[in-house]
Amino acid sequence: MGPLYRRAHRKVEQDAPIEGLSVGVRAVLVLLREHGPMTVPQLGRAQALSRQFVQRMINDAAARDLVESMPNPAHKRSSLIRLTEEGRAAITAVLDRERAVLRQAGGDLTEADVTACIRVLTHLLHFLDHVDVD
């Protein structure tokens, strides 16, 4: 897993500048695209990152008009962050380009292979999210 993660991460870092997005801003935009408006603390928890780091990524994205704040009816002091049209277009372009590249990686993998891989990785993520390491 380590070598695959490092190579994939490096590829994302290399390709992100094509759209002018850092890896951190890209991650925030992906979450907002998948889940809709979220607070900075929610974005941090979803990525296991500090609120401060996520806030810097939000600030970077907002400076480029990729995200905007909106009132949060559930919490007066914690605004919701949502994608702008520009943000949605930017992250869609990044994901479309990545998917086009990844489609070439399939080789002779079957749908059953991919389904089994997703099941195993999902199980590992769930396990790691809930295991106590003391």
Automatic annotation (TrEMBL):
Domain HTH marR-type: 1-126
Pfam family, one: MarR_2
UniProt keywords, alphabetically: DNA-binding
Keyword DNA-binding annotated: yes
GO molecular function, a single term: DNA binding
UniProt xrefs under InterPro entries: HTH_MarR-typ, MarR/SlyA-like, WH-like_DNA-bd_sf, WH_DNA-bd_sf
Top-rank taxon: Bacteria
Protein name listed in UniProt: DNA-binding MarR family transcriptional regulator
Lineage: Bacteria, Bacillati, Actinomycetota, Actinomycetes, Streptosporangiales
